[in-house]
User: Which sequence fits this backbone?
């Protein structure tokens, strides 16, 4: 099979580039820089790649609308209903299902992840794909389980975005800002004792910082509650050696619950 046309080879190459951080196209046409003639003028410098600015919209500010909708919700069912009726986030148009939450809302621990992937979009539940199975194994190891009816041993799980971004790309800042009032209200209404921030995206959204390698394992605060940033299970699937740090964080969480 020719690696230049083989679907799987091309997909792995793309995945590898994304893992290196090259996750955005900055030109319409591919440019083979090895084949540029010696004297070719350097291509005009491009502006730093940024997330495309959203088209200016007529009408109400979606962030204000989100704040109002979230504030109207007096319980988790009405929060879900407000999200279902929230028209301003374009991601909903490409999604199969709203992914609101899973687990036991009475749990002492609430996990906030990034955004649904393909499996979650199909199932309408967070963390059900490979990363989700890893997450279940991690928390099982300290006696916490999303299926537990007992708040002591239960988990409650949600994401920053409730709709799948296309091609599983990272959420953009405008998307996060728009959905944040719902996430904050979700935390308020579930009222967990501890919030776990799974990976960079929830850290960016809820504590305004990225750099999970530095943040993980250090307790912080979200909505007045203790919060623990941890490596995302999808990252652990790619970097199994980092499971040692994840295990230390799980033990810190267990100790806090017991202490
Ligand atoms: N990754 C996440 O952060 N959330 C999911 O629901 C699935 C994968």
Assistant:
């Amino acid at each position: 099979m020719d690696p230049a046309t083989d679907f799987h080879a091309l997909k792995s190459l793309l995945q590898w580039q994304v893992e290196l951080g090259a996750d955005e196209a900055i030109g319409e046409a591919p440019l083979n820089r090895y084949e540029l003639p010696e004297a070719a003028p350097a291509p005009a410098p491009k502006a730093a790649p940024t997330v495309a600015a959203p088209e200016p919209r007529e009408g109400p500010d979606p962030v204000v609308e989100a704040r109002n909708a979230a504030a109207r919700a007096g319980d988790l069912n009405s929060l879900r209903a407000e999200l279902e009726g929230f028209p301003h986030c374009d991601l909903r148009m490409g999604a199969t299902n709203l992914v609101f939450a899973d687990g036991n809302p009475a749990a002492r621990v609430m996990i906030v992840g990034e955004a649904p992937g393909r499996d979650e979009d199909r199932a309408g539940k967070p963390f059900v794909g490979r990363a989700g199975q890893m997450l279940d194994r991690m928390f099982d190891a300290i006696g916490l389980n999303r299926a537990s009816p007992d708040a002591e041993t239960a988990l409650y799980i949600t994401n920053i975005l409730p709709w799948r971004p296309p091609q599983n790309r990272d959420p953009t800042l405008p998307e996060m800002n728009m959905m944040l009032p719902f996430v904050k209200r979700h935390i308020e209404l579930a009222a967990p004792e501890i919030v776990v921030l799974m990976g960079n995206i929830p850290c960016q959204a809820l504590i305004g910082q990225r750099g999970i390698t530095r943040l993980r394992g250090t307790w912080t605060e979200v909505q007045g509650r203790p919060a623990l940033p941890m490596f995302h299970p999808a990252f652990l699937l790619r970097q199994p050696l980092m499971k040692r740090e994840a295990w230390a964080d799980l033990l810190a969480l267990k100790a806090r619950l017991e202490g």
Remarks:
- The beta strands are 102-103, 109-113, 155-159, 194-198, 220-222, 225-230.
